[in-house]
């Protein structure tokens, strides 16, 4: 094989650690509902008798003060001020005390009653009743309360200021009051989103940036001077940041605060594109706020559509009860979505666009807007609303001016920066850009929304609650729950690697009482289903006479593909659906899996001259069932490297040496499907798809290898010798022959790419960061020091030929 065609690796396998320390504290004393005392039940606990409240509680559960791994790389969710820094505006911040006795403790100054994280009162009764300590009766109460919510709640309007600003990596050079303080009266809440906060490689790869503090300070000083605000939450993913402020008097009514992030960059991990989001309960309404930065370039609207869909499907908020399904974005009363959505104006050249702008014919211009067209086609943002646009396009300007782009590229002006909403009882009061700010090549945008929030009437709530309890007392003694299932057998045909399939199970409550169901574990099994299968939701509650659809979803990824490829596992499972106080139902799940080169080992693929799906399953089983010494040989001379690696690298070598943002810009999901099928079936003869899609497929291939190119057994040696070129070369000489061939082939290909760095903007650091995380995967969790050592190791092979 004389031409290049090997792969590229994945990326900073940066652990997505969040310092989730909200600037919130539970109030000293929870609101009192004295009439509830008669519904308390005495129960035995450790050390004697304790009082357990059945329908409502006042216990405080602390959340968000934890570290966890999220959906995307490079995410930060933290207290907005660290150290002893304070911002003197109208905004109150915590002060972190120093010294050995107080390390890590946060002293709230005048904040004790501002924001509680998770107290259970009438305004968040539904979550309290869903917690593990509450049983079937309490879920019956919850179901009926939610069904009758209109009886005991009323609407009150609150103003939400939403702002979005792509700052193009700049530092604040001017005050933000003209943007954030532009309303006649102080808003009740601020949701302020930034994109491209920091464009440096350090921010991209390690998520560290001083600009977070700089822009947060600028925001705090720019808020409306007519009120005092508390900074409740800050969440950032690389350059995408969201700040949430509330007026001090409202903070005590904020609860259930959660933050999440999703990267939609290369391989769905990198955070240069993606979204950050928060969700919270305000009084009795659930609100979700999303700040997103979608794919760039005028022709990439399909990629933007895919980014939007990925964010909606992957951005999930945890609930108090871990057994409950996470909350998706659309499972909220109101969704507020802002950001640089990057949709452009199509089918008009720059002169025509500027001519319409000069005439202020925004209605005609808007008809060419990609986002409007995609919404009209119901491709994205179904159910969302956007106000009329009566302001100039917000992109692209010469920095520091109101002049349209005069660079060589001469970008066509566009409304990239947008604000939309979804939900009832929402009225937009203004939607505008702010031309006075000239720091960036974008202009900031704001929208002021008046939102009807549900508040609880205590007397009506008390009456409704007591009526529910009386009726349940009678029902519980007389009725046994019962379900009808739409079907009990599910078959998934031709399951493929990373291709989602779903079937719907409909449950109908044909009994006389509401019922509670849950998929339960079978004997001696750790979970209720196989790892490639998910039931969504896996647990739930159905009102009398009601229906619920459950999606049974099959998705094979790198963690499950290897066993299925080898035939050691099949698409077969039995689900047990348990009905509380009722019987168990058994569901049969079956299907067939089409083997893939993705998730197969280098050793196995080097034994296959034909596409993997042309091989008998028994042959694949034999190839993977024996050790290296007794491995089955089905061809006289194994391939030097897997033909699939050669195909992808050769394609990129011939077509993409000068491709900009290679291995950094994602491809299209639909094109990956075509590439995978081509590699697995041999048809067509040449790889389909764009260069970016082939590059991402190569990264996914390396990421899915069950044993990385540098085997786990040699990982530690690589770390120990990372600074010594000759020792690094020696370690590579110890690799199994086919692994060594792949390693040298990829390194040679990447060195060729570096010869064209003036065109493709690649450098040694970028390629080492991306590929070291794939070629030298750690058998355990990898810390930052190890990541740097793996990058240093691989850099030796990028700067010179050591083969």
TrEMBL record:
GO terms for biological process: phosphatidylinositol dephosphorylation; signal transduction. It comes from the Eukaryota. Residues 615-803 form the Rho-GAP domain. Keywords: Cytoplasmic vesicle, Endosome, Hydrolase, Lipid metabolism, Membrane. InterPro entries: Endo/exonu/phosph_ase_sf, Ig-like_fold, IP5, IPPc, OCRL-1_2_ASH, OCRL1/INPP5B_INPP5c, Rho_GTPase_activation_prot, RhoGAP_dom. PROSITE patterns: RHOGAP. GO terms for molecular function: inositol-1,4,5-trisphosphate 5-phosphatase activity; phosphatidylinositol-4,5-bisphosphate 5-phosphatase activity. Residues 60-122 are annotated as: Disordered. Pfam families: Exo_endo_phos2, OCRL-like_ASH, RhoGAP. Residues 92-115 have a biased composition (Basic and acidic residues). GO terms for cellular component: cytosol; early endosome membrane; phagocytic vesicle membrane. Its EC number is 3.1.3.36. The keyword Membrane applies. This is phosphoinositide 5-phosphatase. It comes from Oncorhynchus kisutch. The gene is INPP5B.
